[in-house]
Write a structure and sequence with these properties.
The protein has 380 residues and is of the alpha/beta class. The chain is built from 15 helices and 13 strands. Helices cover 38% and strands 16% of the residues. The chain is globular and about 65 Å long. Bound molecules: uridine-5'-diphosphate (UDP).
Length: 380
């Protein structure tokens, strides 16, 4: 296949990310598969990115530190000007066929402003869009920007201006799904796990109260605002309360964290994260927001752990009720569901993940969308 894609990962974190990093993780999963399918990839990222690509352009040497010392808007402005220059040059030389952008504050604004003279562009939506309609005001139909969602539900909730530019959705994937059905079956423990940023939308407070009612151990894994370890949060003192997620944790979750039945272990990574997830009786998502993509959901299935969740956002698209998880629209029913989760077959979760949520499935779907964008069609 002769197709060259400029992949815009933005000026913030390296790819793959050093720790937590949603968009950067998606790109790190997607790009190797695209290249295996014969796509040439030029990565626009920070200089410290180590992902193997065909060519790399960078606005900052190391975004995490250099960029964050400047105000957000200033970083975006510098990154926009840099990206515009790179795109103009590569496009004028016919060196790229398409831009795949992931960073609305940098790429979308830049590419939309180029109008019909710009290259065909696919922008992937990563947010819960209902809260951010203003970000997308710049799409006017006269440009060559098309968008895709990470779930059908995310797109359905998106502002009309975006839906009119949509070419469909692509579910997130995980490298853990590769051969998920062929790995040895891990031993299961007793604990429930909530894996994700500690945040009101993810509902850790609901989970913590539930654990005490049903008497099952619950592990909360993930950062609280910028704090990745309990000791770092404790050392930060009162100033930490300026962050809304810290306030949520201290006021709504921490009173139920007794260090015994309910524990907050901070951010987990690598093998530790995978072991914690694989040994869980169930992954719990007591959501209060419309989860747009749910990487942790597909990771859970890939490791053979059924999902118990409120049926919000992408959850009904990713989880088959009664097969790979248990869903409810009624938060109060979650107690019964966590107790029933052990009736679900971990191997079935892994089989479904190996079929539906591999990087290869995701990359093939993106190649289809790239074709659609290049042909200028907009049917989903
Ligand atoms: N994650 C992790 N360690 C943690 C908490 C989260 O590695 O302690 C990872 C998780 O495995 C997933 C990502 O962070 O890959 C979260 O992505 P998701 O789409 O689930 O949620 P988001 O934070 O993007 O809303």
């Amino acid at each position: 296949m002769s197709l060259t894609v400029l992949m815009n990962a933005g000026p913030w974190l390296s790819v793959p990310p050093p720790g937590y990093g949603g968009i950067e993780n998606v790109i790190a999963t997607l790009v190797p598969e695209l290249r295996r399918l014969g796509v040439r990839v030029v990565l626009a990222s920070v200089g410290s990115s180590t992902l193997p690509v065909d060519e790399q352009v960078s606005v900052f040497a190391d975004g995490q530190f250099a960029a964050l010392q400047r105000p957000y808007n200033q970083v975006c402005g510098i990154a926009q000007a840099h990206l515009a220059g790179v795109v103009r040059e590569l496009h004028s030389r016919d060196d790229i066929d398409l831009v795949h952008d992931h960073v609305e504050a940098v790429g979308l604004a830049t590419l939309a402003a180029m109008g019909p003279a710009g290259p065909p562009t696919l922008h992937t939506l990563h947010w819960d869009l209902a809260k951010h309609p203003a970000l997308y005001g710049s799409l006017d139909g006269g440009d060559r920007v098309r968008v895709n969602g990470v779930s059908a539900s995310q797109l359905a909730r998106a502002p009309l201006a975006l839906r009119e530019h949509s070419v469909g959705h692509v579910h997130l994937s995980t490298p853990l799904a590769l051969d998920a059905d062929r790995r040895p079956r891990p031993d299961k423990g007793e604990h429930l796990l909530i894996l994700g940023r500690i945040n009101p939308g993810k509902g850790q407070d609901v989970g913590a109260r539930l654990a005490h009612r049903v008497g099952l151990p619950l592990v909360l894994a993930g950062p609280v605002g910028p704090y990745h370890r309990p000791a770092d949060l404790a050392a930060a003192g009162d100033e930490a309360r300026q962050n809304p997620d810290v306030r949520f944790f201290l006021d709504e979750v921490a009173p139920h964290v007794d260090g015994d039945l309910v524990r907050w272990v901070g951010t987990v990574a690598g093998q530790e994260r995978d072991d914690l997830l694989a040994a869980a009786r169930a992954s719990l998502f007591p959501l209060r927001w419309e989860e747009p993509g749910g990487t942790a959901v597909v990771e859970s299935l890939a490791l053979g752990t059924p999902v118990v969740a409120t049926s919000r956002g992408c959850l009904p698209e990713l989880i088959e009720h009664g097969r790979t998880g248990l869903l409810t629209t009624d938060e109060e029913e979650l107690d019964d569901l966590v107790l029933s989760a052990e009736l679900l077959d971990p191997d079935e979760c892994r089989r479904v993940a190996a079929q539906r949520f591999t990087p290869e499935v995701m990359a093939q779907r993106y190649v289809e969308l790239y074709e659609r964008v290049r042909q200028g069609t907009s049917a989903a």
